[in-house]
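Render Ferredoxin--nitrite reductase, chloroplastic in 3D.
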Amino acid sequence: MSSSSSSFSVRFASPLLPSPAAATSASPKTWRVHATTPTVAPVTTSSAPEVDAERLEPRVEERDGYFVLKEKFRKGINPQEKVKIEKEPMKLFMENGIEDLAKLSMEEIDQAKNTKDDIDVRLKWLGLFHRRKHHYGRFMMRLKLPNGVTTSEQTRYLASVIKKYGKDGCADVTTRQNWQIRGVVLPDVPEILKGLAQVGLTSLQSGMDNVRNPVGNPLAGIDPEEIVDTRPYTNLLSHFITANAQGNPTVTNLPRKWNVCVVGSHDLYEHPHINDLAYMPATKDGRFGFNLLVGGFFSPKRCAEAIPLDAWVAADDVIPVCKAVLEAYRDLGSRGNRQKTRMMWLIDELGIEGFRAEVVRRMPGQELDRASSEDLVQRQWDRRDYLGVHPQKQEGFNYVGLHIPVGRVQAGDMDELARLADAYGSGELRLTVEQNIIIPNVDNSKLEALLKEPLLEKFSPQPSILMKGLVACTGNQFCGQAIIETKARALKVTEEVERLVDVTKPVRMHWTGCPNSCAQVQVADIGFMGCMTRDEDGKTCEGADVFLGGRIGSDSHLGDIYKKGVPCKDLVPLVADILVEHFGAVVREREEAED
C-alpha cells in the first residue's frame, strides 16, 4: 500500500443467510474510500500551545521502503527501538526471512543476539510471541480478525494447527475480538502462514508497535437496533493497515501499540473510550460519518480515557483520517521510556489542538471538519445482553450468544463450534471483546435442536450472572509477564463466591495477571490485577490489587484501586463483601450455601 495512495477498494461478502430470499441482499459489495477534500476552511492553530518547530520535525524517514528512526533522534531511545534499528522486523515477512529463521534450531538461534532478538522481539511483527519464560521454544500466534467475524473453515484450520501440539495447543478469544493460538513451534511457522492465507486469515502486524485488531459491533448487520454496520469499515481498516495482508511498512514502526474501533451500537460493545482512535457515528449536513475520539489506553503507569479530537469525517474518509493520525503518531511520538510512548502522551505534549493540527497537515487537502453535534449514539441506553437467543433484523433468523468461560477453547471445541455454525447458521462465528462467541443466522426452525447440542452444556447461552461477566487474561500459565495465574483462578473464585452470595444483577469481573492490564480491569465493575504480596504470616504469596467502579457505555469511567495487595486465598470473602455492599447481593443461608 503506497503511502501516497488516495483511494482503494475492498470487496467482501456479507454473510449469506441460508434462504433464497436472502440471496440478493447478501451479494458481494464493493466499498470504496476516496481521499476527498471536505469543503471547509483550513483549521487554524491559534489556540494550540506553543511548540518548538524542531519538535514538529518527523523523527522517522523512509529508507528502501521502510520507515526508520533518524540518527539525530536516537539518543535515549528504549531497547525495543534499538532492536528495530539493528534489523527491520518486517523483513522477516516481506523479504521472507522467516523461511531461513525457521530452519535454525533453538540452540543455534540463542547463540547470536540478532537471531535471539528475531524470535523474542521481531517475530511479534508476524504475530508470533515466544514463550521463553514458561514454554521455551513454543509460540503464541495472534491473528487479525476485523470485527471478530470468522468462518467455520477458518476455525477448523486453526483447530488443525493446535491439535498437533497436544496439551501445549489451545486457543483463546481475546479482549479485541480476536483469536490467539498456542503451542506453535518455529519450524511449522512458514506452512502455518501459508495455511492462514489460504483460508483468508493473517497474523501480520498484530503485536508490538503495530495497529491491533480493528474492533466493531459483534452484532453488525444483524442487530435490529444497530446504528451502522461496522464490518465494511473494520475490514477497510484492516486491509489498509496490512496492505491486504502483504505488509504495510508505512505504519509498522510506531512508538508503541495502537488500538482502533468503529462504533455501530448504542450499547458501545466496542469500548471506544479505551482505544487510541474511535469512530463515533454522527451526521453532519445530511451526510453520515463519524466524530473522532483519540488517546484511550491502559499501561502499568497510567490509564486514560479517549478524548474528543473535535473532528468529523464523512464515511468515505475513514481511511485517510486513520492514516493521518497514525502518521502524526509515527512521526512525532516519543521513543524513550516505554511507559510514556502511547499516543496520549504525545497529545498531552502538543495539546489537543496542536495534535489536531498535525493530523490536519497529513490529511488530503490539509482540511478536516470540526466535530458534529448530531451524535447518533443514544446516551440513555441500557446495555443489552447478547448472550442467549435473540431475533435478528432478518425475519425468521436469530443469533445465539455462547459464554466461553474465560475465553479458553481446545481444538475439539473449535471443530464443534465450526460444525454448529455450518449445521445451524451460515458458517459464520462472531467473537466479542468479553471473550464470548456468537452464532448468527440461525433459522427459527433450527433453534430447538441447536440448544440441545452437547457443546452448549460447556459453552452455555445462559450462564450464571457472575460467570457471564467474567474476563481473564492469559495469566502465568503461558505469559511470561503475568505475575499470577488468572484463568483457572477466576473461575474458581467466582464459583466459590456464588456459593456465598446471591447476585441479582450483572456484575463484570475482570482478571489480569500484571499491570499491563490486557484484561482491562479498569473498565470492570470489580477488577483484579496480579501482584506479589504477603500473607498474615509475612510470607510472600500471589495476590491481587482490587479495583472497583469501572463503567462501560455512554457514562464510561475507569475504576479506582479499592484494596491493594490482597492474598489470592483471601479474595473470596472480600469479593462476597463487595458484592453485598456495592451491588445488592444477598448472603445465602448456610444450608443453601452447603447445598
